[in-house]
Design a protein that fits this description.
single chain; 296 residues; Rossmann fold; Tumour Suppressor Smad4; six-stranded antiparallel sheet; 17 strands
């Protein structure tokens, strides 16, 4: 069932009136422009049954996502991660690859984008009728507590999250605690990832070391120091955990960066807690679940 529609799952499309937001990648490349025009033309065929707003990702705001029955993201994985922090856990999201690598080696892999121009119309109807595969993707979130007692929650991260010194040439110094672990550490920063965070290099290291289990992907996350030797497996350097990671900064200024986008700065003495408390993302797929896709 979608949003405020009072229809049962599987109800005929003709009985559904849906509020849809289409967010697209705007970079003036012909392939993306052509994909956008194709999607808009298909949606026009259903204009009596849906209400559609179209926004460039550079201009979209959190308020644009409120009350939507479906959000369509047209682009690649970067387009989705760049706007996903605006989307709550109840709003279904459909990813459409505007430039698939299957047709062009310079295109996007689109791990989160299970639809493309060729399959879009069929997939769109499946999504609106409530028949798509629903994946609730866990998201990382950091909570910063300043020395003055202010608490700041970062945007949720569906891929990865970085904590480091804002001066990249300087070491990141911090007191790290997680479960029984309690150490003072110097590194080039800490990286955190969900299991589905395909783009994170440390995720690949962890898999080569057989650290982690996709069966625990809803409850566990990966954490690693950025200057790690791949021969080191101690939990102070590399861990697959369900417990919160807490650091107290000994840096003049550091930052938290979720999914490579907005930066949240903190000063010496601030405490930063990272865990999987972010609201999950409700991502729709049409042929395989995300867990099945990662196994293919």
């Amino acid at each position: 069932m979608f949003g405020n529609n009072h229809t049962q799952e599987g109800a005929p499309f003709r009985n559904i009136m849906a509020d849809v937001l289409l967010v697209f990648k705007k970079n003036f490349e012909e392939v993306h422009d052509n994909s956008l025009e194709s999607i808009k033309m298909i949606l026009q065929n259903y204009q009596q049954r849906i209400r559609v707003d179209v926004r460039a990702r550079e201009k979209v705001r959190r308020a644009d996502f409120i009350g939507r029955d479906l959000v369509i993201v047209l682009g690649g994985d970067g387009t989705l991660t760049s706007i996903s922090h605006n989307i709550d856990s109840n709003t279904p999201v459909m990813g459409v690859n505007s430039h698939p690598r299957s047709g062009d080696p310079l295109g996007s892999f689109g791990f989160y984008m299970d639809s493309d121009i060729d399959t879009f119309e069929e997939d769109f109807i499946v999504a609106i009728e409530g028949k798509a595969i629903v994946n609730h993707l866990p998201r990382l979130q950091a909570t910063i507590e300043t020395t003055s007692g202010n608490r700041i929650k970062t945007d949720p991260a569906m891929n990865d999250l970085l904590i480091a010194n804002t001066h990249q040439y300087a070491p990141s110094k911090y007191h790290l605690r997680r479960g029984d672990l309690d150490v003072i550490q110097h590194s080039s920063g800490l990286l955190f990832s969900t299991w589905l965070g395909q783009g994170a290099w440390f995720n690949q290291i962890a898999r080569k070391k057989k650290l982690g289990d996709i069966g625990q992907s809803d409850t566990h996350y990966l954490v690693i120091t950025r200057d790690i030797s791949t021969d080191i497996l101690g939990p102070e350097y590399l861990d697959w955990t369900s417990q919160p990671t807490v650091i107290t900064s000994d840096m003049h200024r550091g930052y938290v960066v979720p999914d490579g986008w907005d930066e949240y700065q903190f000063n010496r003495g601030a405490t930063i807690t990272v865990d999987l408390s972010g609201p999950p993302l409700k991502l729709l797929t049409f042929r395989n679940s995300m867990k099945d896709r990662i196994a293919l």
